[in-house]
UniProtKB/TrEMBL annotation:
InterPro entries: CheY-like_superfamily, OmpR/PhoB-type_DNA-bd, Response_regulator, Sig_transdc_resp-reg_C-effctor, Sig_transdc_resp-reg_receiver, WalR-like, WH-like_DNA-bd_sf. SUPFAM superfamilies: C-terminal effector domain of the bipartite response regulators, CheY-like. GO terms for cellular component: cytosol; protein-DNA complex. Residues 134-230 bind DNA. GO terms for molecular function: phosphorelay response regulator activity; transcription cis-regulatory region binding. GO terms for biological process: regulation of DNA-templated transcription. Residues 4-120 form the Response regulatory domain. This is Proteobacterial dedicated sortase system response regulator. Residues 134-230 form the OmpR/PhoB-type domain. CDD domains: REC_OmpR (cd17574), trans_reg_C (cd00383).
């Protein structure tokens, strides 16, 4: 049975373009122009994954409101923002509301489908048998479970997006080794500028520091990249 992906996007041409691309990848697609329409449909049955724009019609923050409502209903529903609003403030707002990822509309369709696939892979790992947790990295307070895509710090779960998880994984696999921005991009399957990589690292640090203000495992190596302390 096909996975159901819902798209909430107020621009008809953009909505149709994404819907057609995802159908070609075998997904069943539900498309909605606004929050009220999507909310009415989701009240009957939640899809398997939701893609949301931030601005919806005459609601500049409609996507954020919808994300908040969906996350209150389901902790595990994959939610992905796909929007032209990609300032650091907007990204952080979306992630704080519980979105799994936040992508710019400049993201290519192959990158978008790869990210959707990664979100479903994480969901399958979380709902699958515990025996699937085959690769685990432990370093001081950190535990990283690859198959479950789960990271904990001193026993508390760190709510990382898919992108952030793979960046942490890239550093933790080889502690003490410097990972360049290009290597981090490759690991996370994203193509972004250096400033965006820096923003991701800042957000990762903040999430660990929210659990442990003394957290200082990620070191910046100026001109080279980042590394997890050896």
């Amino acid at each position: 049975m096909s996975r159901i992906v819902a798209i909430v996007e107020d621009e008809p041409a953009i909505r149709d373009n994404y819907a057609e691309a995802l159908r070609r990848h075998g997904y069943a697609v539900q498309a909605y122009a606004g929050r009220a329409e999507a909310r009415a449909a989701f009240a009957l049955k939640l899809p398997d994954l939701v893609i949301i724009d931030v601005g919806l019609g005459d609601e500049p923050e409609g996507g954020f409101d919808l994300c908040r409502e969906l996350r209150a209903r389901s902790a595990s529903l994959p939610i992905l923002f796909l929007t032209a609003r990609d300032s650091d403030f907007d990204v952080i707002s979306g992630l704080r509301l519980g979105a799994d990822d936040y992508l710019s509309k400049a993201t290519s369709l192959p990158q978008l489908t790869a990210r959707i696939h990664a979100l479903f892979r994480r969901l399958d790992a979380l709902t699958g048998p515990a025996a699937a947790r085959e690769q685990v990295f432990r370093l001081r307070g950190l535990t990283l479970e690859v198959e479950r895509m789960r990271v904990t710090w001193n026993g508390a779960e760190v709510a990382l997006t898919v992108t952030e998880f793979w960046m942490v994984h890239a550093m933790v696999r080889y502690p003490g080794h410097v990972k360049s921005r290009e290597q981090l991009m490759r690991e996370a399957q994203v193509v972004v500028d250096d400033a965006t990589i820096t923003s991701h690292i800042k957000r990762i640090r903040r999430k660990f520091q929210a659990l442990d203000p003394a957290f200082d495992e990620i070191e910046t190596v100026h001109g080279a990249g980042y590394r997890w302390r050896a």
